Amino acid sequence: MKIKYSLLLLACSLILTISCKKEKLLPFSPKNQLSEFQTEKAQIIDLDTLAYKEITGKHGTTIYFDRYSFEIKEGEKVQLELVELYDFKEVLFRNIQTVTTDDKLLESSGVLKVVFTANGKELKRKKGEVLKVYPPKGKLKDNDIFLSQTDSLDNITWDITNLVLLDTVVNIGGGISMLKTIVLDSISYANRQKFIKRTKSDVLIESNNESAEDSFVLPFFLEQNTSQWINIDRFVDVQTKINFELEDKQEEFSGFNIYINYENINSFMYEVRFVDNLNFYDIPLSEKTFITVIGENKEGLFYDKIELKETINDAKLQLNMKKTTKEELKKLFD
Question: How big is the CA angle at 85 (ends 64 and 69), to the nearest 5 degrees?
């Protein structure tokens, strides 16, 4: 009888434990718990019906606006939406991860968004026209220019720009000439070498401009997706890559928001994972690397932070989720 009674108590205990865990569960929906800490707002700049304008953002980005390079009706008023993210925390708080479409790790020196609109609709550039952008001096040193790609879950990855363009003076008649940007493929190799100086990323350098090393342009073939983010990045020297699995024995969460952060470099990876999909492959390590796992249930926010090392390759890591607040989460990334 004692054995049957003990088994009955054990069964009841298991039922109660499972029941309690289920009561805590919430349906998993990806959520950026850090979004409220963003302080950088979009700058809205009215250009009215101006034909040309040199625009400088509050953090030093300069953009050259030419009305006639856009598909726009006469008399339509133009606005510019400019977002400058040169503080890496602002990039992190928006979940703009620093990894390429082919899973290479990047370090960011700044992220921009440049969108021209008229009557609330994005303007397209005319074929053959480009948009000239100058970030603050020094930002392009040893960096490349990348353009964002967004998946169905709004996760951002990056593609490097490869088009080489040229600034040259064009005679437009009547003794008048103007500076024009053209695609290098349309001129001879000899003239390319004569007129241009190229960056590491093969993006336009205006050789007669004192800030030449800090200039770039957006190729015309981006005209149908002008709201892409622009990233000023360099490739990170990855020491090694590891595989591992996370295990959640508490079973109190349906899914997790997951950050992989790198100490002393402006890099991070972001993923959302359901509780039955916690295997990770080819995670790059560079200097000190951490994985921060954030879960939410009916009792609030929880987290665990684990240092990733080469010695844990192919290991199963046990999660120890601890209750926290949004403010405490923010401190984890300071």
Answer: 20
Question: If we measure between CA atoms, which residue out of 106, 141, 139 comes closest to residue 233?
Answer: 106
User: What residues contact residue 92 under an 8 Å CB cut-off, 6+ apart?
Assistant: 34, 268, 333
For residue range 88-104, list pLDDT tens digits in order: 999 999 999 999 999 99
Nearest to 219, CA basis, from 231, 203, 234: 203
Task: Assess contact for 123 and 72: CB atoms under 8 A.
Answer: yes
Sign of CA dihedral 146, 265, 211, 48: positive
- Sort residue 172 into left (φ over 0), alpha (ψ -120 to 50) or beta: alpha
- Residue 316 CA to chain centroid, in angstroms? 29
The residues pairing with 274 across neighbouring beta strands, listed in sequence order, are 255
Q: Is the pLDDT of residue 164 over 70?
A: no
Residues 6+ apart with CB under 8 A from 73: 118
Asked whether the beta carbons of 182 and 97 are under 8 A apart, the reply is no
Phi, psi of 45 (to 5 degrees): -120, 120
User: DSSP states of 242-276 as a string?
Assistant: EEEEEE-TT---SEEEEEEEETTSS-EEEEEEETT
CA–CA separation, 208 vs 38, rounded Å?
38
Tokens for 179, please give them.
Answer: 């500076």
- Among the listed residues 199, 263, 261, 206, the one whose alpha carbon sits nearest the alpha carbon of residue 234: 199
- The backbone region for 175, taken as left when phi is positive above 0, alpha when psi lies in -120 to 50, beta otherwise, is left
pLDDT digits (tens, 9 = 90+) for 247-292: 999 899 999 999 999 999 999 999 999 999 999 999 999 989 999 9
Q: Please list, residue by residue across 156-166, b when 16 or more beta carbons sit within 10 angstroms of its beta carbon and e when fewer do.
A: bbbebbebbbb
Give the whole-angstrom CA distance, residue 310 versus residue 241: 8
The label of the residue with tokens 């609109």 reads: 117
